[in-house]
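Re: weekly structure request thread

Next one in the queue (315 aa):
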Amino acid sequence: MMFSVIIPAYNAEHFIDASVISVLSQSCDDYELIIVDDGSQDGTREKISAYSDSRIKYIYQDNGGVSSARNRGILESNGEFVCFLDSDDEWKANHLEVLQSLIKKYDHCSLFITGYDIRLNNGVLIHKSAEILKHVPMKQFASDNGFDVLLKNGYFFNTNTMCCRKKVFDKVGLFEVGVKNGEDDDMWFRIFIYYPIAVSKVSTTVYDRANCGATGKRLDVVEPFFMKRVEGILIADDVPSFRKDSLLIWREENKLSRARQFILNGNKREAILLIKRLDLKKIKKKRYFQTLLCCVIPSKIIKKFIDKRDSGYYN
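Done, posted below.
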């Protein structure tokens, strides 16, 4: 078996059908579908029991959070490659086929990433990863440094686009249980540290904002859980120096991003404290000076501008 597809589900009866059907409609059928019901109190079990497809494996567990559910799926999986899909999102029919193509072409890689669209609340599709990677000329490419791709282009992935060799979990560990923000990035960044990646710009997944409550989260200022690992990684003997160099840049750029979030929610004191801790040799000077300028502009004005700019995306 080539692929193990893991869907963590919690009280998903109103939208999980679309996710399941999108997997069962794949043009590639060499997979198992593992649905881990993380203690749902609604009709999720009944929804899944209506499917008679032998490729579906349904597992119920007490509620432990999305990381716990994904980990259970990994441990129960039989495929050489593990893929993830959230219960409120969908794959296009070409997803596993595109991943097969990447795996065949870039066999030296261990993490494979496809493109994604975002479906807004009004139904409009935005070809997000194609927009983010527009300066990359190749339709498919490999990189020895996922952090370098991230720093040059921005967030070109989400969990639904990810597929990795199952054996990488022996090296990097499983998802961190109990982490409520950034538990997925923490996993992908750990893999970036140790393995080369392969990327396709072809959009094969749809992230549905209609089922997402992220509108107000733009004001949250949270240090990524992965930040706790950075110091240990920097002294590790088995991490190449070029990845450590990119990690140092990511750390400083992330500080700058959090400073901007502090400014946006009116906490300029914390923003300035973060800015003072920056290693200026590691960050883009334009972003740095823009952030300084924002420190002297009233936060209400900045927020009003950003709300207007993003109104079509968040509403």
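The chain is about 40% helix and 20% strand. Strands lie at 3-9, 31-38, 56-61, 81-84, 90-91, 111-119, 125-126, 140-143, 162-165, 197-208.
Next request, please.
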